[in-house]
């Protein structure tokens, strides 16, 4: 019985364990194939983060330019033009009196 166990059963158990761990090394939820997918998603998210960081930096710069004491007249004019619906260069805005 000991000889049979040593000759057939131990190699079979070892082969099963190697096959089990080998399968999950390649196709498991954290295997090598999943790693490629995670790396692709990571690169997409890093590009998105860079885009959002640039957008945030631009917004922070505009906020600094609009703070009291350091108003940028060009930026104020740009914002006023963008808020007017039918504005075009050369048009004159006539302010109305508040009621």
Task: Sketch the major β-sheet.
Answer: none
Low-confidence stretches: none
Rg, nearest Å: 33 Å
Helix content: over 70%
Strand content: under 5%
What is the overall shape? Answer: rod-shaped
Number of helices: 3
H and E string:
HHH
Mean pLDDT across all amino acids = 85
Total strands: the figure is 0
Give the CA-CA distance, first to last residue. Answer: 105 Å
- SS-based structural class? mainly alpha
Task: Describe the structure concisely.
The chain has 99 residues and is mostly helical. Helices cover 73% and strands 0% of the residues.
Describe the secondary structure blueprint for this structure.
Layout lengths: L1 H26 L4 H35 L6 H11 L16
Task: Give a description of the structure.
- The chain has helices at residues 2-27, 32-66, 73-83.
- With 99 residues, it is mainly alpha-helical.
- The protein has a domain at 12-79.
- The protein is rod-shaped and about 105 Å long.
- The model has no long low-confidence stretch (mean pLDDT 85).
List keywords for this structure.
single chain, mainly alpha, 99 residues, 3 helices
């Amino acid at each position: 019985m000991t000889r049979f166990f040593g000759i057939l059963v131990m190699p079979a158990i070892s082969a099963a364990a190697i096959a089990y761990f080998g399968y999950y090394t390649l196709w498991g939820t954290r295997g090598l194939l999943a790693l490629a997918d995670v790396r692709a998603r990571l690169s997409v998210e890093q590009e998105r983060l860079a885009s959002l960081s640039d957008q945030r930096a631009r917004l922070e710069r505009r906020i600094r330019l609009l703070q009291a004491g350091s108003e940028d007249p060009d930026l104020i004019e740009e914002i006023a033009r963008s808020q007017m619906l039918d504005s075009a260069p050369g048009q004159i805005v006539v302010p109305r009196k508040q009621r």
